[in-house]
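TASK: fixed-backbone design
INPUT:
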């Protein structure tokens, strides 16, 4: 393809990133620069996502810095989400929380979901609870934080979490799936696995 535009480059980088060929995505970014094409916001979403999946924390941090210093691009929420995922997926939860605290804007649901997903991978109960509470503050009807926390608790053999469940259910409601009834906060005496009817095998 001659005279490839930024749209073409972004489509290729994103496609490779989303389909498990992160190395090719990074190589395309380098090739794009060699051809004199300036990256944009979408380019860096694919690039940072690739770094996250490959565990390239240092490289991802450098690309993130280059957004402003080299390309004069202001990071958006999607880029902040990628960076949280980059740190947390690598198990660097302190860096992830420091990054969130330093964000110039209020983190949205996707930022906390990225953190919660990595807490599930690494069995980080404490931060998992924090992330789940933040998600529920933004979207109280979302049942996924309860389900993911159930998985985290089970992975570290924490079967009796009634006290924490009461604290959460005191202010939040959840439903398991479409068509199910709302779970009232007063029913918090039930274990989270019984309440959500989530079996752990």
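OUTPUT:
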């Amino acid at each position: 393809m001659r005279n490839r535009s930024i749209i073409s480059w972004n489509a290729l980088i994103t496609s490779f990133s989303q389909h498990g060929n992160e190395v090719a995505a990074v190589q395309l970014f380098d090739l794009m620069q060699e051809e004199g094409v300036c990256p944009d916001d979408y380019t860096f979403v694919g690039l940072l996502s690739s770094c996250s999946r490959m565990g390239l924390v240092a490289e991802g941090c450098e690309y993130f810095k280059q957004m402003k210093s080299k390309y004069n691009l202001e990071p958006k929420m999607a880029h902040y989400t990628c960076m949280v995922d980059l740190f947390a997926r690598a198990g660097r939860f302190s860096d992830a929380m420091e990054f969130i605290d330093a964000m110039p804007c209020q983190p949205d649901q996707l930022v906390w979901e990225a953190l919660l997903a990595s807490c599930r991978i690494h069995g980080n109960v404490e931060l998992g609870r924090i992330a789940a509470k933040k998600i529920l503050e933004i979207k109280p009807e979302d049942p996924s934080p309860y389900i993911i926390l159930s998985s985290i608790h089970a992975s570290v053999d924490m079967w009796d979490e009634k006290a924490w469940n009461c604290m959460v259910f005191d202010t939040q409601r959840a439903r398991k799936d479409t068509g199910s009834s709302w779970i009232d906060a007063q029913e918090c005496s039930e274990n989270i696995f019984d309440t959500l009817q989530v079996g752990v095998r």
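COMMENT: The chain has a mean pLDDT of 82.
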